[in-house]
Design goal:
283 residues; alpha/beta; Rossmann fold; 6-phosphogluconate dehydrogenase C-terminal fold; 2 domains; eight-stranded mixed beta sheet; 12 helices; 8 strands
Length: 283
Amino acid sequence: MEQPVVTIIGVGLIGGSIALKLRSLPYAKHVIGVEANEQHAQKALTLGLVDEILPLAEAVKHSTVVIIATPVNAALQVIQQVLPHVTHQTVLDVGSTKVPIVSAAADFSQASNFVPTHPMWGTEFSGPEAATADAFTNKAVVICSHPALLASHLQQAVQLYQALGMHIVYMTPEEHDVHVAYVSHVSHITSFALANTVLEKEKEENTIFELASGGFESTVRLAKSTASMWVPILQQNRDNVLDVLNEHITQLRKFKTCLEKENYTYLAELIEQANSIKKALKQ
């Protein structure tokens, strides 16, 4: 396979991690960055995440593969800026919502070149300095097909993610948005809500720091994620997230009722039922 030139639009945590890994592999011949934040652009060059920074249209022109790695609200605008410049290029995004961006791409004849994807990895950190080369190894990536997509561009996306060491899961955009509402989006809301609960009830921050154990830290770790990233995600996947939240609230009420009524037998049943999640999670 001829080595592609890869452009990454948005060289923050996800885009920067992809860039860093690609530069260590024989897969890509050249990695171009497109970055609206000048400080991030300079940091990406200093850290060696990309070979060069170019304006969007020029970068797309010289590319084989274009990866949109901006926050999801910006991605809706970027896809409309990229597709008019596309001829032979494969374009893919890495966002946490898929239905809105597939809809945005559908307005263009170049939608045949667009592969909606979502690498299932992330941290609470952001920016080029948060990038890590081995972020995606052995992780899952969701690839979503749509009626306009050409097989050649799908294959190009598959080859890229295989080079990153990921295993591929195929879903429709609608299936993806439902499932990530359960496994990602509601967990962030839970983390934000728990952090606010503790901060409201425990006014002494020093006490939190002293008593916080590994379990608490892992539960609220996601609460350090930024509003600028998560408000657009929750907005774009609002209906699915509301459905999951309703079920989550129902489950919380069960625990509350058990304690109110001192029904510790049912409380044990709820905990044992939850223990079965171990079967679904890789140990």
